[in-house]
User: Fold this.
Amino acid sequence: MAEITIAGVMRAGAYSPNHIGNDTAIFNMTAEELRKRGCLVNVYSEEQFNAQGGVEEDYIVAMCRERESIHLLQQMEDHGKVVVNSGYGIENCTRERMTRILLGNGIPYPESLIVDTNENVKPLIEKAGFQSCWIKRGDFHAMHKEDVSYCRHAEEAQEVLQEYFYRGIKRAVINVHLVGDLVKFYGIQGSPYFFWFYPFEEGHSKYGHEAINGRSRGIEFSEDELKDMCHRAATELGVVVYGGDCIIGEGGDIQIIDFNDWPSFAPCRNEAAPHIAKAILNCFKK
Assistant:
């Protein structure tokens, strides 16, 4: 696999809210690790990628999030190019798709409602028994703080959903709020590498929502169970480089609450980058 040519497509800044520098850093470090392994890596911005209608290279490393970018990746995959992460996997990490896939495959995930934003959801929330909940845009990746909203009761949830409707967001996912320790994780399919930490204690935040669950109590849980669950979720979603969040319940039970294609790996990128590069090359070999 030495001396192969790879197109590296960066993520547009709009899809790196509060993490533009971190996302750029892990992308650049991974590209450098690929170069160390004898690859030529041509880097494109997401805007360049879209403007020219894709790339000529047969091997593509992508952090794309734009709708147009994802569709271009999928078209190129359909024509035989190898893409990591897959455009189909990236699309699967949008909220409604992710919710359906994880619940449909028995992966622990909060009880959820998938709704149109012009619905009257108060009866649905009350019937489901949600005391408090999270409303998340269902149609695509989050771009703004308001795309993920904590609601204390059904009336507040209805108001937030109406705001989504006025913003042009047609679909939303409502997750029941889970009480417990918030844990953030990073992993790579086909690699032993896995990292987790408590984001509240480390001051790691995208939108400040970590404060809702607050300081972790250090509830004991099985790291092996978490790792296996995340690898299984990545397989079902079709992504190689991934991360996300989960809640550790009082009894040590684990439920994934968010799952992302290629996150920043900010607390561990120096250690993660070589593993990401190795996993990417393994995908190309296949």
